Amino acid sequence: MPAYEINWSYKGDKGPENWGHICSDFEIAQTGEKQSPVDIQTDDVKNIDGSPIDFHYTETNFTMKRVENSVHLFPHEKDQYVTFRDDKYTLQAFHAHMPSEHHLDGESYPIEWHFVHENARGEKLVIGAFMEVGTNISIDLTNVRRAFPEVFKDFGIERELTLNVDDFLPEEKAFFSYEGSLTTPPTVEGITWIVLKNRRVFGHVAHKALEKVIGGTNRPIQELNGRKITFHK
Ligand SMILES: [Zn+2]
């Protein structure tokens, strides 16, 4: 299937409530019991001392291009990684959703970045990082917000950006973790989620610019179905 044929959407007949009926590959959106995103009730999490994750990001080059209903950034080299429970997960790509997909105690945030990693066995780990909008800006997204609309309007357009993923993550990296799914079709399960509790602050100009392109790209909250969420600080 060519990349420019998009057979799902965030509203209407092909919106999230109907993803499971679009084709057999997407059925798990309807039948799965470990779907994402979820609302993280912080009073219900299991607190665990010590962090099993280490981040290994450096400033590096990314290609930005449109993928389905969003804009994704792909690192040129597969040398950006995290270690989680002694397993190495390499960054494959990242993108954002607006507003956030995960909630904390019922609250959503203006944006949630998803950093998609994979280990040698092809198992995925996704880091979710919220951001808030404000004047005490702790990340400059000027280059990102300028390129976003340009690549979104045409599948053939690419932009090159130099970024450090660490700049997108809060300095204090306490996180929630649970087993879930991808949040876009096919919403396959078996995904290790790392959702950072703290948040960087980005500016109003960037917020407006990005929202024009990817506003409304959040899948509704899914049932936990007894899954336990852990909290690591
Ligand atoms: Zn995502």
Automatic annotation (TrEMBL):
<dbReference type="InterPro" id="IPR023561">
    <property type="entry name" value="Carbonic_anhydrase_a-class"/>
</dbReference>
<dbReference type="InterPro" id="IPR036398">
    <property type="entry name" value="CA_dom_sf"/>
</dbReference>
<keyword id="KW-0862">Zinc</keyword>
<comment type="similarity">
    <text>Belongs to the alpha-carbonic anhydrase family.</text>
</comment>
<protein>
    <recommendedName>
        <fullName>carbonic anhydrase</fullName>
        <ecNumber>4.2.1.1</ecNumber>
    </recommendedName>
</protein>
<keyword id="KW-0456">Lyase</keyword>
<dbReference type="GO" id="GO:0004089">
    <property type="term" value="F:carbonate dehydratase activity"/>
</dbReference>
<keyword id="KW-0479">Metal-binding</keyword>
<dbReference type="GO" id="GO:0008270">
    <property type="term" value="F:zinc ion binding"/>
</dbReference>
<dbReference type="Pfam" id="PF00194">
    <property type="entry name" value="Carb_anhydrase"/>
</dbReference>
<feature type="domain" description="Alpha-carbonic anhydrase">
    <location>
        <begin position="6"/>
        <end position="233"/>
    </location>
</feature>
<dbReference type="InterPro" id="IPR001148">
    <property type="entry name" value="CA_dom"/>
</dbReference>
<dbReference type="InterPro" id="IPR041891">
    <property type="entry name" value="Alpha_CA_prokaryot-like"/>
</dbReference>
